[in-house]
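Predict structure. Chain length: 134.
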Amino acid sequence: MAKSKTAHLAPYQFQPRASAPVIIRERVAAAKPKKQKRHSRRGHGGGAGEPIQMSIGGFLVGILDKQGTNIPTVPMLGRAGTLALGLHFLGRQFKSKMVNNAALAAAAIAGYELGRDGSISGSVLGGGGVAAQV
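Prediction complete.
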């Protein structure tokens, strides 16, 4: 009997290996990217409401000047200038663009009166205004 070369080898038996540990991963959805603000190079302002707000300021100055009410006035500013100053600080306090536009209208009227007459209506200094002091 001839011996085979493979007779002395035992059959191979697979050894069970320990299985790899199960890794549990929780995935969180990525945050949405923030939208970047667009900066325009155009100027701010304009629009349909701004002239109306200016006219409201002019209307208020006209009504107060017509009625002759006793508004405490700041010397050299007169009624229109005092109203413009008061509206300016009121608009800054309440952060109101409408009140700021009314203050600009009142300041424009005060400047017009100063240029036309040399004084602002309701000025404490009298008719001479700035021209009388020079």
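Summary: Residues 128-134 have pLDDT under 50 and may be disordered.
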